[in-house]
Amino acid sequence: MFYLMYMKIRNNTTQYNIHISQAFGSKSIDSSAHDWDKFCGEKIPSSLELNLVIFDYISPQDKILDVGMGFGKTLFDLHKRGFKNLSGVDSNQSGIEFANNAIGKFNLDGNLNFVTGNAKELPFENSSQNAVVTQAFWTAIVNPSDRKAVVNEINRVLKNNGILYIADFGQTPEIPKYRERYEQGKQKGYEYGTFEVVNDSGEVEYLAHHHAKEELTKLLTESGFKIETYIVSPVQTRSGSTINGHTIIARKVD
Hints:
Largest sheet: 7 strands, mixed
Number of helices: 7
Shape: globular
C-alpha cells in the first residue's frame, strides 16, 4: 500500500495549476514562501530524486530533518529505505497536511514529525539532528541575506559533525534560453541567476534562482561547514528541461 502511495506521489509531482499576476520586487523568504504556498498538497513541484551518495553519510538510526519538505516525497523515500527518525518542515500548510494524513492512512511506523514553519526559525532544538536534507529548496530563496539566515539555522539544529545534503539547480548559461533569462533578470535588478518563471499565459508564477558553484561554496564555508562532496551533473527541472544540478555533502565543523 505504501509503495502505491509513493508511486502516486511521483506521478503527480508535475501536476500543478497556479496563476499569480503580480509584480515582484526584492523578495524575502516570507514573500517567496507565499508564492510557493499557492501549490497544494501533492501538487507541490518536486522534480529531484535523492542522489545515492547521501547513503554513504547517513544511517537508518540517524535523526534526519528535511527543510522545505513539500508534501514529503523525500521523507517517504527515506522511510521506504528503512529510515524511521524523520522530521520535516515547510511553510506550505497543505503539503504538511498531505504528509501527516499519509502517516495515518498507511500506518507508517517510526518517529515522524512534519510541521509547518519558517526555515529562518526552525522549530527544532539546538544540535538535535544528525543530518539535514534540502532538495530543490535553495532555488526558491532569491534573497542572499535569507540564504545566510537559513544556513545558520541549519547549522544550529545540526549536531557537531552533522551532515547537510543539498541537491539543487545550478546556473546553466551554456543553454541560450537560460542565459537569456539570467540576463533579463539582471536587467530587472535581480541577482544574476535569478529569473521570473511564467506560465503559459505569460503571468509570473514566482522567482527562481540558479546557483553558481562559487555561491554555494562561499555560503557553506562562511557558515561553519566543510564541503566533503560536490557533484555537478545533469538534472531535470519541473518543466522537463535538462540543466546543471549541484549535489553537495557538507559537514558541520567547530
